[in-house]
Write a structure and sequence with these properties.
The complex is a heterodimer of chains A (about 230) and B (about 190). Helix content of chain A is about 15%, strand content about 45%. Chain A has a 13-stranded antiparallel sheet with strand order 1-7-8-9-10-11-12-13-2-3-4-5-6. Chain A is globular. Chain A contains three helices and 13 strands; from the N terminus they run H-E-H-E-E-E-E-E-H-E-E-E-E-E-E-E. With about 230 residues, chain A is of the alpha+beta class. The longest helix of chain A is centred in the N-terminal third of the chain and has 18 residues, at about 5-20. Chain A has one domain (about 25-220): outer membrane lipoprotein receptor (LolB), chain A (Clam). Chain B is mainly beta. Chain B has a single domain (about 1-15, about 25-180), classed as Lipoprotein localisation LolA/LolB/LppX (outer membrane lipoprotein receptor (LolB), chain A). Chain B is about 15% helix and about 45% strand. In chain B, strand 7 (about 120-125) and strand 8 (about 125-130) form a beta hairpin. Chain B is globular, with a radius of gyration of 17 Å. The two termini of chain B are about 20 Å apart. Mean pLDDT of chain B is about 80; it is low at about 1-20. The chains are: A alpha+beta (about 230), B mainly beta (about 190). The interface of A and B includes residues 57, 67, 88, 104 and 106 of A.
Chain lengths: ~230, ~190
């Protein structure tokens, strides 16, 4: 019994510490300071098409390599996943009015939850979050943060200067960390930043990791829009 | 991809009065173009393909996503790039690749035109069209077109059609037939 109690305490302490780390950190807000341009630069400006090599790992250890295509068309987006050998696994378009339309989904990518999760990840990486309130400030280590709070209480922190590129962290309405996205090796393109590498980690019941490496990036004009 | 190995047998079926040399091995470089309706320009990949009868395969992509598939002695191994190096990826299930290998073996045994998976037609002198018989399979791949080279036993291109605007074309070059290849080519990265 004497051994069990310290073990339980240790577990509790570890869990509590982890829980604290997973919640939104305190923000020292800045009156009259506008960090919006830096945060806006995280997201591609205008219409773009990106092709990434994606290495994905699921919580159960399964995973693999695919090639992902994302088109940002202004009034919506389109995305596709294919094997390295060129076989199309998933293709969908999303428009602000018609919502999500799945055009092709090969098992195991044919579950509705997969399409919704993929869309959520794509929106998170490439589109500025919807927000009822935006606050600007600094973390304790002076890292700049734009904190977007949605109408449903979800929080998205944009860190426009982290790791010499950027980071995005999201929290559920219960203020538990949901996803982290780290951009690395950014290059400037107009007013935006395009990272060479992106790593997304999803938390919660089905944890997973996506490691994305940029293959090609095309700025789209009216003629080239798909 | 499988079709790279097919032409000798197809020619045999088409022109069975001419002797076709036994296929022992095939090596080729390839350029792969992936076309998709939403893509503003195709994704171009490059690599090499090596087959040795009866059941050894090396299928390697060098750019833009390094990847290697090895099949030998009934075993299948997949390698993917991690931190700049090719490492064995044991996360993926390779059951489908076993099926692929079985198909290759069938075709090399001359059992091509009575293929259970595809209906075979010859729309041109140097063109073969494979159409899936199963409707479920046809929803994924509508057809495969093989462009044969003038030289028997060689293939110029394979195009895999998935649906409107979506296809993958592999164009082969630097093709070598029936060279003696070390087993290590099919077991080591």
């Amino acid at each position: 019994m004497k051994r069990i109690v310290p073990a339980i305490m240790l577990l509790c302490l570890t869990a509590c510490a982890a829980g604290q780390l997973m919640r939104p950190p305190e923000l020292a807000t800045a009156e009259g300071v506008n960090m919006a341009p830096g945060c806006a630069a995280i997201f591609p400006q205008g219409c773009w098409q990106f092709v990434h090599a994606i290495d994905f790992t699921m919580q159960d250890g399964t995973g693999g390599n695919v090639v992902g295509v994302t088109s940002l068309t202004g009034d919506g987006l389109a995305c596709a996943l294919m094997t390295v050998e060129g076989f199309t696994l998933f293709e969908a378009v999303y428009s602000n009015d018609a919502k999500l339309v799945v055009k092709r989904a090969v098992p195991p990518f044919d579950k509705p939850a997969f399409a919704e999760g993929l869309l959520a990840d794509v929106r998170l990486i490439f589109l500025a979050p919807d927000a009822a309130e935006v606050r600007y400030g600094w973390l304790a280590d002076r890292t700049e943060v734009c904190r977007y709070t949605g109408g449903d209480g979800r929080i998205t922190d944009l860190l426009p200067t982290a790791d010499a590129c950027w980071q995005i962290k999201t929290y559920t309405s219960k203020l538990v960390m949901d996803r982290t996205i780290v951009g690395r090796a950014c290059r400037k393109s107009g007013n935006g930043l395009i990272p060479e590498h992106i790593e997304l980690r999803g938390f919660g019941q089905g944890e997973y990791t996506l490691k994305m490496t940029l293959i090609q990036a095309d700025h789209l004009n009216q003629e080239s829009l798909p | 991809m499988l079709a790279l190995l097919v032409p000798a047998q197809v020619f045999a079926a088409e022109t069975d009065t001419q002797a076709v040399p036994l296929l022992r091995s095939v090596q080729a470089d390839f350029i792969q173009e992936k076309h998709l309706r939403i893509l503003v320009r195709p994704i171009i990949s490059a690599g090499t393909f090596v087959f040795q009868a009866p059941r050894s395969l090396r299928w390697e992509y060098r750019t833009p996503v390094p990847s290697l598939l090895l099949m030998h002695d009934g075993g299948v191994r997949k390698f993917a790039e991690q931190d700049g190096q090719l490492v064995e990826d044991k996360r993926v299930r390779l059951d489908a690749m076993q099926v692929v290998l079985a198909e290759i073996s069938n075709w090399l045994d001359g059992r091509f035109t009575d293929n259970k998976m595809f209906a075979v037609t010859f729309p041109g002198h140097l063109t073969i069209l494979l159409t899936p018989k199963d409707q479920g399979f046809a929803a994924l791949i509508s057809s495969i077109e093989l462009k044969l080279a003038d030289q028997k036993g060689l293939l110029d291109a394979v195009t895999i059609f998935e649906g409107p605007g979506s296809f993958t074309r592999l164009t082969f070059s630097n093709r070598r037939l029936n060279q003696d290849l070390p087993a290590a080519l099919f077991t080591d990265k």
